[in-house]
């Protein structure tokens, strides 16, 4: 017999409180960042508007349950591919080239939209559907069926990865993180996973070696311009490149380092970082609130990941579990990469800090993902007798 709960009891108040804290931190940091002379627009007000829009997205997404999302997953996946393809062939009047790539649609009166931010969520739904359906069809695990599942996951991931990698390397890395994360939790035998991970690591190590020591080979045989490696060179030696490619990293290290333990205080920044309200918002937090403030922000992300993990364990629907796993992989990679690039642990890739960096598409995509978690919690059914939940 199913326990009847009121709507207010089914709502995920914990997640909503976490998002509220992120909203406050984001708006305060952006407000402080835009006080420098480079800004002519009120990004603080825009971010508040984006959060309101994100709240509406959460409400709409939460309305539908997992059964409906499972049916819609392939339609959303196809829609996402259509947008990515249209972005490539669209004229520059509606898809301008920014920083050497066409990643945005510019819609008059509506602003900019980055399709890849939503494609990440659509891919999570599609891969989750594939894994859940595969295990329903093949009850008994075999090496052959596991390999079939790997092929299906790979074939589904390659089209969006191919379309995104020519537009935005950072988002392409997120797509790969989602793929490998869901691969690890899909139940595929380690006899398949270990060789794949080993081959991937070997390939990455080879490419890095060639970039560092013999870049002319990549330029000659693959047609890759060596200037594209400047971000890696500036990451390893920001002092030598502080006038150009290493400028942001050099300034970011100065800002975070000067914040010391407790920071300089709200609005008391002295280190100038261009466009700090976007990808380098963590540098603003580090300078103004020091190690203590930065640790609180990172701790809040840990709390979010813990809550998502608990949601994945509470639900008995495998499809919901895989959705949670995909969202966890996406958020974790974003945080690790963004914070890492501001403190020289990782190269700069232009990946925003979830829920905190300024950006409508990024925030709305993340709120879409949170809407799925709200939906899982809201439509979760608990029964009086027995421990099975649907």
Automatic annotation (TrEMBL):
It is found in: Membrane. It comes from the Bacteria. It holds the Pfam family FTSW_RODA_SPOVE. The keyword Transmembrane applies. The chain crosses the membrane at residues 12-31, 43-64, 76-98, 172-189, 196-214, 289-307, 319-336, 356-376. Its main location: membrane. Keywords: Cell shape, Membrane, Transmembrane, Transmembrane helix. The keyword Transmembrane applies. It is a multi-pass membrane protein. InterPro entries: FtsW/RodA (IPR001182). This is FtsW/RodA/SpoVE family cell cycle protein.
């Amino acid at each position: 017999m199913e326990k009847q709960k009121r709507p207010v009891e089914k709502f995920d108040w914990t997640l909503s409180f976490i998002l509220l804290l992120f909203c406050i931190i984001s708006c305060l940091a952006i407000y402080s960042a835009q006080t420098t002379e480079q800004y002519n627009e009120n990004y603080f007000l825009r971010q508040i508007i984006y959060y309101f829009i994100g709240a509406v997205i959460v409400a709409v997404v939460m309305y539908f349950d997992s059964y409906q999302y499972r049916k819609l997953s392939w339609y959303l996946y196809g829609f996402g591919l259509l947008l990515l393809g249209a972005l490539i062939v669209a004229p520059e009047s509606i898809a301008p080239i920014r920083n050497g790539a066409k990643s945005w649609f510019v819609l008059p009166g509506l602003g900019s939209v980055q399709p890849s931010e939503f494609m990440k969520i659509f891919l999570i739904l599609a891969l989750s559907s594939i894994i859940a359906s595969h295990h329903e069809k093949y009850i008994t695990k075999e090496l052959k069926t596991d390999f079939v599942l790997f092929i299906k996951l790979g074939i589904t991931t390659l089209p969006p990865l191919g379309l995104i990698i020519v537009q935005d390397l950072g988002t392409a890395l997120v797509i790969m993180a989602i793929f490998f994360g869901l691969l690890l939790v899909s139940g595929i035998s380690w006899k398949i996973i270990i060789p794949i991970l080993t081959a991937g690591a070997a390939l990455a190590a080879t490419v890095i070696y060639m970039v560092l020591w013999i870049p002319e080979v990549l330029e000659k045989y693959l047609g890759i311009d060596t200037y594209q490696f400047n971000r890696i060179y500036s990451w390893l030696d920001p002092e030598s490149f502080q006038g150009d490619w290493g400028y942001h990293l050099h300034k970011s290290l100065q800002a975070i380092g000067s914040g010391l333990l407790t920071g300089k205080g709200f609005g008391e920044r002295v280190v100038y970082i261009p466009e700090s309200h976007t990808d380098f918002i963590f540098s603003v937090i580090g300078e103004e609130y020091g190690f203590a403030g930065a640790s609180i922000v990172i701790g809040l992300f840990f709390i979010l990941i813990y809550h998502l993990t608990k949601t994945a364990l509470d639900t008995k629907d495998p499809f919901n579990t895989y959705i949670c796993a995909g969202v966890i992989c996406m958020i974790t990679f974003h945080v690790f990469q963004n914070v890492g690039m501001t403190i020289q642990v990782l190269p700069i890739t232009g990946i925003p800090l979830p829920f905190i960096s300024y950006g409508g598409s990024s925030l709305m995509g993340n709120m879409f993902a949170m809407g799925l978690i709200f939906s899982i919690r809201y439509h979760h059914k608990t029964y009086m007798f027995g421990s099975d939940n649907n």
